[in-house]
Amino acid sequence: MKILVSREDANYWQKKGALAFRFQFGNESKDGIIIERNGQHTCFIALGEKEKPARNDSQAKRGDSGGMTRRKLILLARRVVFEALRKKYTNIVLDFRQFRFPAIKITDGELAELLAINFLMASFEFRDFLSKPKEGFPKVNTITLVNASGKEIQSGIERGIIIGEEVNHARHIATMPGGNMTPAILAKHTKQSVKGLPIQFSVLNETQMARLKMGGVLAVGQGSQEKSRFIILEYFGAGKPAQGGSASSGKEKPICPCGQGRDI
To answer: Is the pTM of this model over 0.85?
Structure first.
């Protein structure tokens, strides 16, 4: 999927066959309905009255309105892609300003990143063992954002694409049946994933693990005919520790998420 920023307006892209979206408050009768006018297609998505921006400060303080949350915004971005896939549109045009809600205090760059991540995550489907239909699987090829100029928005989109693609890559590996994602295959996937990154990759075989007395890992592996592997990824973004010590070389220390060795 490509996520682009355009100087042209939505009408320009609709004339080229892109599906536009319009968010409306409270008009549930039109929810998910596509209206065609002069060959241009627009899909309406109804938002609840609680998501409508507050009309004044007192209303906002009472919580009567302006109830759009970050989670609801994420789901809204994903629904745009779901609707396009369900209706078999390959191209979408969106007005970036429609995703701006006063109740959510984020920058344009953060909003662009959030949208890009969730557009990509919504497009994920595990199809490795499905027969491809004659007309092909539904796929959104391009999402074009209008009224979204500026380096901050472009940078946010670029960050979001990286995160979204890597999340989907991890989801693909995690969804693969165990018989098709053996320790050896997972090690190959891992090596490919860190290619070109400042990460040192190594993998231990059973002989090396036995030498290190890693009995727990080897015991689990005995329940399978596949040979065990132990994957090691080392990142020294803050500089390698001094010989025999754990202190960094004076640079800023990285923040490293940790989990079980077999987590993805």
So the answer is: no
